[in-house]
Write a structure and sequence with these properties.
Layout lengths: L27 E3 L5 E3 H10 L16 E2 L2 H9 L1 E3 L10 E3 H10 L4 E3 L8 E3 L3 H7 L5 E2 L7 E2 L9 H86 L1
């Protein structure tokens, strides 16, 4: 649908009106026969028809093109009232800038930002409404620290809320203690496995050293026996020498 022609100041050229809705063109497209339409209007028309609504020439979505530049410029220069005129906005601006103005217009009706509140209020009055909105968030006046989010929460029981909060903290602390306990047990198991593995390696090394020492002692005994044998042979040789 187009822009309501009643919103415009002064004369609007017939060529800038949609051939379907007869309002001022919004997001316009042009057919090969040069008739112009709002995008939403012509797309809706072509769902059930295959011709131009003005001269009945055959057209297709693929044949639609943007408006001629000079027509687009004429369209953008048109002056119109803000859609919030009925609420008190007196702004008149070009069609080219009307969307930007209306997005920021102080007279626009916007929803309250508090969850649960269904009030629609002018943007300029929103801050004042938020101060008194029954769905606004605020702390309990009794000092328990509970955040009141809605009108129903105003009757909350501070003791019960604090007890609930303590239970939550207690549960959280127990969970953290259990996590720390499991982590410490996991670390101890890992260290225990490492120590057992290290002990096994050291035991093997000790057995190897014992084996080496045993072989060395055997070699020493053999050397001592050989030395005694050698000494006896020297003594025998000495005796034979004396006899000679």
């Amino acid at each position: 649908m187009g822009y309501d022609i009643e919103r415009f100041v002064g004369y609007v050229n017939e060529g800038l009106l949609c051939s379907i809705c007869r309002d001022v063109l919004e997001d316009p497209l042009q057919a090969p026969c040069e008739h112009a339409f709002c995008t939403a209007c012509i797309h809706g028309w072509l769902v059930h028809h295959s011709n131009c609504p003005e001269d009945r020439q055959v057209i297709d979505v693929s044949l639609l093109r943007p408006l001629y530049r000079y027509m687009k410029n004429d369209l953008n220069r048109l002056q119109l009232h803000c859609r919030n005129r009925e609420y008190g906005c007196e702004m008149v601006c070009s069609l080219e800038s009307i969307d930007r103005h209306e997005r920021e217009c102080e007279y626009s009706q916007i929803p309250c930002s508090n969850a649960g509140c269904t009030v629609q209020i002018e943007r300029r009055n929103l801050d004042g409404h938020l101060v008194v909105c029954e769905y606004r968030s605020r702390e309990c006046p009794n000092g328990c620290g509970y955040t009141i989010l809605s009108a129903e929460d105003t009757q909350h029981n501070c003791v019960a809320e604090l007890r609930t909060e303590l239970e939550l903290l207690r549960s959280e602390m127990i969970c953290r203690v259990e996590e720390a306990k499991h982590e410490m047990e996991s670390r101890l198991d890992s260290q225990r496995r490492h120590m057992v593995q290290k002990e096994s390696i050291l035991q093997n090394e000790i057995e190897e050293l014992k084996s080496q020492m045993s072989r060395m002692m055997s070699d020493v005994r053999s050397l001592m026996a050989a030395e005694r044998q050698h000494r006896q042979e020297l003594e025998q040789a000495e005796l034979e020498k004396r006899e000679l």
